[in-house]
Amino acid sequence: MDKILQATADAAWILGEEGHDPLRESSHESRFAISNGFLGVRGARAATGGCRWAIPARTYVAGLFDTSTADGAIPELVPGADWLRVRILLDGKPLVDDPGDLSSHRMTLDMRRGVLLTECLQMNTPAVGVRLRTLRLVSLSERSLGLQLIQLDVEHGEVAVSLEASFEGMNLGLVAERVGQDLGVWRTPHSRKGLAMAAAPSLQVDGDEVPATALGELRWSWTWRSRPGQVACFARSVAVTRSDAPDLDPAADARDKLGAAQRLGWRGVVADHEAAWASRWRCSDVEVEGDPVAQQALRFAAYHLNSAANPADERVSIGARALTGDDYRGHVFWDTEIFLLPFYALTWPEAARALLVYRFHTLDAARAKAARMGWRGALYAWESADTGDEATPEQVIGPDRRVVDVLSGRLEQHISADVAYAVWQYWQATGDETFLLDFGAEILLETARFWASRARVEADGRHHIRGVIGPDEYHEDIDDNAFTNLMARWNIARGLEVVTLMGERWAGRWTQLSSRLGLEDVELKQWRAVADTISTGIDSSTGLIEQFAGYFALEEIDLADYAGRSVPMDVVLGRARTRQSQVIKQADVVALLALLPDEFIGDTAAENFHYYEPRCGHGSSLSRAMHGLVAARLGEPALALRYFHETAAIDLAETHAAIAGGVHIAALGGLWQMAVLGFAGLSIGADGVAIDPKLPASWRSLAFSVQWHGRQLRLRIAQAEQSLEATLEAGEPMTLVVCGTSYALDRDGALHISLREPQNAAA
User: Which positions does UniProt annotate for substrate binding (predicted)?
Assistant: First the structure.
C-alpha cells in the first residue's frame, strides 16, 4: 500500500495544503473534491475527532434531485451519506481529538491519478506516536465505485487501538427504505428517486486479516493492540447506484457493482481508475513551459472538467459547481453549453454528446415553457435540474439581506440560442451524423422557431425582441439586447442551414421530421424575414454595438475610481443606480465577440472590446475568461494573460473566500478556452482545423491535443523558434490551416511549420 499512498513525483501535477485553517476549510473541501461525473465527494478530512465534527462530508450523486415540498418547490441536489467516516481510538481516546491537533496534516490532490491523499503525524502523547496516511477515489473506470484506503504506521508505543468505520448523514433529505449492515436504500421524499449504497470494509494488521465487529446499519469496528513498527491497513469499497422511478429498486445493481469490485480487489480498482485517468490526460492535458502558475491552473481546470462529466448518462448535465458543492442547488445554466462544451467537444466528444442529449431529453419542457409564455418552439429553462422544467427561484436574499425578485427565469432567454450554439459546435467538431439526425436537428429547429415567434416586427420595419435580460444581469427587462438578438439571428440561420442540409443529404429523414414538427415553407420564409430584419444595435457610422436600446444614454462611471473594492459594483452603487449606469456585470457584447468572431470584420471587434472592457465590473466568475479569450484573439496576449491569472485565482488563490459552495467549473472551462482557443488561436469548422497562435511573452511553449471528426491531433507551439509542430496521432489525413495557409496533415510524421514564413503549403 505504501507506493499507492505516495503522490506523483512531478510537482506540476500536485495541489497541496499544509496544516489546518478553520477559516478556509470549506473552500479547501471544494478545491480538493474528487468526482467522476456520477459521484462527487468534497475534500473533507479523513478522520473524525470524537464527536466534535458534526457535519458529514458531502457526497453528491448526479441526477439525485428532489424538492423540499410536493407543491412544485425548487428542486435541489440531495446529498447522499458520507461513506468515509472513520474514528480511531488509542486507549479509548480519539487519535485526533480536535482540528487543532492537525498541525502536521497535509492534504494532496494528485491530479494525474485522480486521487486525494492525506497524511498526518500524531506525536502529541508520550504513550504512542502514529503516522496516518489515506487515499480516496471515485472510480473513473466504474463510476458507481468509491474506495477509501487508510494506513496506520505505529512509530512507538503499545496501546489498545480501536477503529470504527461508519456512514453518517444518511437522512439529509432522504428517507430510509431499508438500512442493514452492508447495504442501505433510500428514497427522495417527493421525486421518489432511489439511492442504494453497498459497502465492504476490511482491516489487516501486519498482513493478517482482523475480523470486524458488526455494530449495525453500515457501522463496523475493529480492535487490536499496537506495537512499534506495526502497520495497519484499512480498505473500504462502496458501490452507489441511483434509480429514477419509484418502482425500480437500485439495491441489486449496487450489490452487483460491489461484488465485481471485490473480485477485482482494491488494487485492481486503483489500477483501472489510474488507467482511465491516463487515457483522459492523453486527450486533454495542456502543457505550458515558462509559467508554472499557469501550468498548475490548466491542470487543475482539466482535472475538474474531466471529473465533472459522465458520458454514460444522458439524463444528467453539469451544474454550476459540478459535483463539488451546494451552490445553485446543482442547477444547470448556460455555463455548460458556452464554457464547458468546447473542452468536451474537442477532447472528449462522448461526454459532449451526452450533455447535449440531456438537452434533447428536456426539449419537451422547453416547448412547454415557450407555450406558457405565448410563443412557439423551445425556450429552455434558465436553471434546469433533472426534468428541464424552470428551476430558477422567484426570489432570493440579496447582499443587503433584502428580498430580491429574480427575473432571469422568465427574461434571460438567450439560453435557447446558447444550447443551439453548443449543438452546432459539436456538429462542426465531430461530424456526428447520428446525433444531428436523432437529436441535434430538432433542437436547432425548435430553438430557431422560438426566436422567429419571439421577435416582433414594428413600425420601423425591423424585428425587435423586447423585455429580456442579457448576460449582463445588472440591467433587467431591456429591449433589443445585442447578445440576445444576434445570437437569435445566428440560431435562426443555423436552423435554416440544417433544413437545407437535411433536404440535400437525408431527404427521407427531413420529410419525417418536418412533418412531425409541422414545419412548412411559409414558416421557413418567415424565419428568413426575421433573420434579415432583426435589430442588431450596430451603429453603422462608428461600428459600435449598443448593448441594448438606450444603453449609450446611461451614466458613465469610471470603474478605476473603485479599484480595490471587495464587493460587486451593484453592492457599491446600489441596484437602482447600477441599472441607470453603463456598469456591466459580465461580458455581454464582449461575449458576442467571443462566440461569433466571424461576424465582426476589420477593426469592429477591437473597437467594441476596448469600449466595453473598461465598463465591466466582472461581477460574475464567468466574465474574465470571456475577456481574456477575446483579448488573446485580438493580439493582446499581455492583457489576456492578466485575465487568465485572475480567472485562475478564483478557485486557487487564498484571497478568495467564495468557493465554499464548490469550484467555479465554468471559469475552469474558460481557462482551457483562453489557452487553446485564445493563445493558440484554434478554431474549427466542418472542413478542418485552423490555428493562429499569439502566445504570452513568458510562455516558452504551449502543447495540447484536440479531436476533430474522429482524428486525434497533437499541436506544440514554440515561442523562441516561432514554430508549430503538428502530429496526426489517429485518423485519416486532414487539412490544417496555420495563420491562413493550408497544409496537408497525415500519419507519416510530425509536420514542422515556421510561424514566421509559412511554407510547404498544400496546393
Answer: 334-335, 585-586
